[in-house]
């Protein structure tokens, strides 16, 4: 089977919000494939980040897709606002949603990609029945809600099991990881079948975004090709 494209999605949670337009443009110019927007509601996760207005501003600043991750309770109540703001991919937590199947269908009907995820302590069985309507699966390699956390090694087995399930499907599903992604962890995840890598601090805390994005891509490609 043909390998899926490696994509790097810098998370603006780690960007300098005083210069957000400059930051996202710099990430795009440095080779980013997507911009990742973490939406936190102060309920499902302790922190509050930003809402549709910021997503809309980012959308106006770049031409690459916006990958929006809803870390919010009852995402079915406000998902349309983020699609209207410019989300190209919208991922929500199955454990925070009353009807994941219905929300996946509703997102796709709006003409964008639908993604689903769960926190590290929640089994993927929560969304496996809906694989035929999922465009992206995000495996959280840290707990949602905070930037700069350490990668949870035990999530590699979760990644591997998810990748095995995806292989059985007859449509393209991106497998994404988020949390503690750097050169070493990107390699390990790619070995297990990941093709989309969210990285915040590793990119935005560096002096050279292009260098860090290139390192992640090369490391992931090495892992994907490693037998």
Radius of gyration using CA atoms only = 16 Å
Total number of strands? 8
Q: Would you tell me the overall average pLDDT?
A: 95
Uncertain segments of ≥5 residues (pLDDT<50)?
A: none
Order of helices and strands: EHEHEHEHEEHEHEHH
Name of the CATH class: Alpha Beta
CATH architecture: Alpha-Beta Barrel
* Class of secondary structure makeup: alpha/beta
Number of helices: 8
Strand order in space, largest sheet: 1-8-7-6-5-4-3-2
CATH-defined superfamily = Aldolase class I
Strand content: 15-25%
Q: What would the principal axes of the Cα set say about the shape?
A: globular
- Calculate the terminal CA-CA distance, rounded to whole Å: 14 Å
Helix content: 25-40%
Reported for the largest beta sheet, the result is: 8 strands, parallel
**CATH topology (fold) name:** TIM Barrel
Number of domains: 1
Question: How would the blueprint of this fold be written?
Answer:
Elements: E1 7-10, H1 20-29, E2 35-40, H2 52-61, E3 66-71, H3 79-85, E4 89-93, H4 100-109, E5 113-118, E6 136-140, H5 155-167, E7 174-178, H6 183-191, E8 196-199, H7 201-204, H8 209-225
Parallel strand pairs: 1-8, 2-3, 3-4, 4-5, 5-6, 6-7, 7-8
Helix pairs in contact: 2-3, 6-8
Descriptive account of the structure:
The chain has 227 residues and is of the alpha/beta class. It has one domain (7-225): Aldolase class I (TIM Barrel, Alpha-Beta Barrel). Helix content is 35%, strand content 18%. Strands 1-8-7-6-5-4-3-2 form an eight-stranded parallel β-sheet. Helix 2 (52-61) runs parallel beside helix 3. The longest helix has 17 residues, at 209-225. The protein is globular, with a radius of gyration of 16 Å. The chain starts with 6 loop residues before the first strand and ends with a helix. The model has no long low-confidence stretch (mean pLDDT 95).
């Amino acid at each position: 089977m043909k390998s899926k494209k490696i994509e790097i999605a810098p998370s603006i949670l780690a960007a300098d919000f005083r210069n957000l337009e400059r930051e996202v443009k710099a990430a795009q110019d440095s080779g980013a494939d997507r911009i990742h927007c973490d939406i936190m509601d102060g309920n499902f996760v302790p922190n509050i980040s930003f809402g549709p207005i910021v997503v809309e501003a980012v959308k106006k600043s770049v031409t690459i897709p916006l990958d929006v991750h809803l870390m919010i309770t009852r995402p079915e109540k406000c998902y349309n606002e983020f699609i209207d703001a410019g989300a190209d991919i919208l991922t929500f937590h199955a454990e925070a949603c009353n009807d994941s199947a219905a929300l996946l269908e509703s997102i796709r009907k709006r003409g964008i990609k639908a993604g689903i995820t769960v926190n590290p302590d929640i089994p993927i069985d929560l969304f496996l029945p809906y694989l035929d309507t999922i465009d992206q699966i995000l495996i959280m390699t840290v707990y949602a809600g905070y930037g700069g956390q350490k990668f949870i090694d035990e999530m590699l087995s979760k990644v591997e099991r998810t990748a095995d399930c995806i292989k059985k499907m007859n449509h393209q599903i991106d497998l994404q990881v988020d949390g503690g992604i750097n050169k070493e962890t990107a390699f390990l995840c790619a070995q297990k079948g990941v093709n989309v890598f969210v990285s915040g601090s590793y990119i935005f805390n560096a002096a050279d975004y292009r260098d860090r994005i290139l390192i992640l891509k090369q490391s992931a490609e090495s892992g994907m090709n490693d037998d």
